[in-house]
Amino acid sequence: MDFSLGEELEAVRDLAREIFTDRATPERLREVETSQARVDEALWADLAAAGLLGALLPERDGGAGLGMAGLCVLLEEQGRRVAPVPLWPALTGALAVAAYGTGRQRADLLPSLADGGGRMTLALEEFGPADPRAPRTTAVADGPHWRLTGAKAVVPAPSGARHVLVTATTQAGPGLFLVAQDAPGVSWDHAETTSHDLSAHLTLDGAAGDPVGTPGDGGVARLVRDASVALAAVQLGVAEGALRHAADHLRERHQFGRPLATFQAVQHQLADCYIDVEAMRVTLWQAVDALTEPSGDLSGTPAGPASADRAALVAKWWATEGGLNTVHRVQHLHGGIGVDTDYPVHRHFLWGKQISTTLGGAGADLERLGALLTSAAVAS
User: Fold this and answer.
1) Range of the domain at 49
2) pLDDT band at 5, cuts 50/70/90?
């Protein structure tokens, strides 16, 4: 299977790396972390001006059609620099609207996302051990409208989001609904996350929702699958960035007249990190391939849902387990410097910790994967 990126994706990677390296400096990160919204709006505008946001959209919506492959390349570069912009929720939601939305919805939402003027966020998680594919939030038809009732937990980056893409259960099955951020019946309870981002708990009390696609059409499962792969891409970048910090630190720091990097125990820790990072990379791109076309060219029509679900869960488990292990080891290898907030590696630890619990931890991923494999075995 060929996981090479190709010229278009390499161009996205190189441009994104240049922008994140120039803009997401430690000084700028400290400034954003103490701001009210915790989002670097200037960096968001730079990404839009460079065409990186719109390039992911289908050609019919004015994009370059890079889809999930382009998104994962962009997210990996973001993770390397732990840049505080809400790429994964906004762009994963945009791809869902592009896939299932009406012409009016696409025209209303996607151009403003591409030019940086507007964005959305996702409301996928709920309180308690809930499967995000089977939301407890409900949606009931009310004439030409739908009314949503329920609570959503840890909605990422609500500041600046004009709409929320909410998952809710109907009589026909789970569905996707667009809800205006300030609509009647919508209330927010803001909360800080482990990674210093601002999230919010969302309460819906008969709030009006505009359906994206048809309830029960598989849109919720696809969105959760895409979000899982997007998170795996961010976590891969976070782990790579953390490992680079460790390599630089251990090469420069000396003990007993030798660089710390030459000590065997240290080398074993770095080797374990490297193995985890490479496993994360392989499973991520296997999942991206399964979400597009089995031939391995990272473009084309979606693969079967069971194959895509399996690959996405494997990638998310490796990101959750391997990513968390990597940032833990890296912080340990830095000694006391690892917990010093004046040294940048602590951000990679906090991001890795936050991502490892989003949409469920490693145990939840294994449980879902086991259920999927069992059901496939029974069916055969």
Assistant:
1) 6-119
2) confident
Model pTM score = 0.93
Is the pLDDT score of 129 beyond 50?
yes
pLDDT of residue 264: 81
Q: For position 17, which CATH number holds?
A: 1.10.540.10
Give the pLDDT mean for 186-209: 94
Task: Fill in the amino acid letter for 165.
Answer: L
Q: What is the pLDDT of residues 286-313, one digit of tens each?
A: 999 998 754 334 444 445 678 899 999 9
* Cβ neighbours of 279 (radius 10 Å): 17
Q: Are residues 159 and 223 in the same domain?
A: no
Mark out the alpha helices in the chain (DSSP H runs): 6-23, 26-33, 41-49, 67-81, 87-100, 103-114, 219-252, 264-292, 305-333, 345-355, 362-379
> What pLDDT score does 1 carry?
59
- Does any domain span residue 300? yes
* Phi–psi pair at 150, nearest 5 degrees: 150, -175
| CA distances from residue 284 to 51, 165, 250 in whole angstroms, order as listed | 24, 24, 28
In sequence order, what are the beta bridge partners of 120? 163
User: Are both 187 and 322 inside the same structural domain?
Assistant: no
**What's the number of CA atoms in the CB half-sphere (13 Å) around residue 14?**
7
- DSSP string of 83-141, one letter each residue: ----HHHHHHHHHHHHHH--HHHHHHHHHHHHTTS-EEEEE---SSS--TTS-S-EEEE
CATH at 371: 1.20.140.10
